[in-house]
Amino acid sequence: MSKKVYTDAVSALAGLLRDDMTVMAGGFGLCGIPENLIAAIKLSGVKGLTVISNNAGVDGFGLGQLLETKQIKKMISSYVGENKLFAQQFLSGELELEFNPQGTLAERIRAGGAGIPAFFTKTGVGTLVAEGKELREFDGETFVMERGLRADLAIVKAWKGDTEGNLIYRKTARNFNPMMAMAGKVTVAEVEQLVNVGTIDPDHVHTPGIFVQRIIEGVHEKRIEQRTTRKRD
């Protein structure tokens, strides 16, 4: 068995967690979130975390669990509208927020993983997003400089992975996960199906195993963020 494979989320994170570290957490809403690894971070009791994630889960699930225990000091996010506790902590001054347009957040993470320290974009020019940031003109238009993002630890969720850490994502889960896997100094992945190396067609790999240091096979609740139904006829 590959040295990358761990039996559970707690053992996979052993020796990696510490107070005041930066963590990237993949997912979009509750789709594609590394729910087992988030639960293990909660159990560890580490605090003062800066978490980079598109959103903060919902009350009581996903990253919302870490808000309940006040383990998160700062969020670097794009969308936080589904979490009432997040709003309460932010408005009371308990939680810092670095807000980003969604495309800008995605590109900041991608840039960090590619070794690009900064880039310029038109998004946010003339708004609060650009306050305190360098502005520069290109071809007569104004752009704002955004810094690339890196993390001490990236936790990601994939549909299938092999014992060397090669990953395949499905549908909407292929959102922030692939770029975060590249931008973490250490990346831990959880998958629904763990298979032997050589089983996955190389042409189907989304994240090459070189970016993944540890991997587990998890059991996933796959909770629905918002269930909308209509009455039967």
From TrEMBL:
<dbReference type="InterPro" id="IPR004165">
    <property type="entry name" value="CoA_trans_fam_I"/>
</dbReference>
<dbReference type="InterPro" id="IPR012792">
    <property type="entry name" value="3-oxoacid_CoA-transf_A"/>
</dbReference>
<dbReference type="Pfam" id="PF01144">
    <property type="entry name" value="CoA_trans"/>
</dbReference>
<protein>
    <submittedName>
        <fullName>Succinyl-CoA--3-ketoacid-CoA transferase</fullName>
    </submittedName>
</protein>
<dbReference type="InterPro" id="IPR037171">
    <property type="entry name" value="NagB/RpiA_transferase-like"/>
</dbReference>
<dbReference type="GO" id="GO:0008410">
    <property type="term" value="F:CoA-transferase activity"/>
</dbReference>
<keyword id="KW-0808">Transferase</keyword>
